[in-house]
Design goal:
This is GlcG protein. By secondary structure, this protein is α+β, with helices and mostly antiparallel strands. It has five helices and four strands. It has one domain: Beta-Lactamase (2-Layer Sandwich). It is globular. 46% of the residues are buried.
């Protein structure tokens, strides 16, 4: 079993922030959890609003707890409205920006949650951050 390291988490954060800068996003917050759901890293850019850490952690936790990206969950909402409604209460909503982090064998090492801009941009930055660390996610 391979654990996500602090060095890898910081590399994901660096790549995510870099993507946000290149895409002219609002200030981002990046939360990274290990495969057991414990926080490894939480970083906020200057100007990131007060609720962003809680939202980023919730996005990462939701992806990890349910084994799929928050985008996939949101897309499944029409098929399972009662389930998704319950998840919305437990995880502060299902919106894009929470992704699983995997190694090259498809092993889930943890999850990242990004909050700060609209959900599609949060997710795009998270994907770039994961790629920057030479890791993988289901979204690419």
């Amino acid at each position: 079993m391979i654990s996500l390291t602090l060095q890898q988490a910081l590399k994901i954060t660096e790549g995510t922030f870099g993507a946000g800068i290149s895409q002219q996003s609002e200030p981002l917050t990046v939360a990274i959890l290990d495969s057991g759901g414990k926080l490894i890293s939480l970083q906020r850019q200057d100007g990131s609003s007060m609720m962003r850490p809680d939202i980023a952690i919730a996005k990462a936790w939701e992806a990890l707890a349910l084994g799929c990206s928050s985008r996939k969950l949101a897309q499944d909402a029409d098929n399972r409205p009662a389930f998704i409604s319950a998840i919305n209460v437990l995880a502060n909503g299902t919106v894009s920006g929470g992704l699983l982090i995997k190694d090259d064998t498809n092993y889930v090492m943890g999850a990242v949650g990004v909050s700060g801009d609209h959900s599609d941009l949060d997710e795009s930055c998270a994907i770039e951050g994961i790629q920057f660390a030479d890791l993988y996610s289901d979204e690419y």
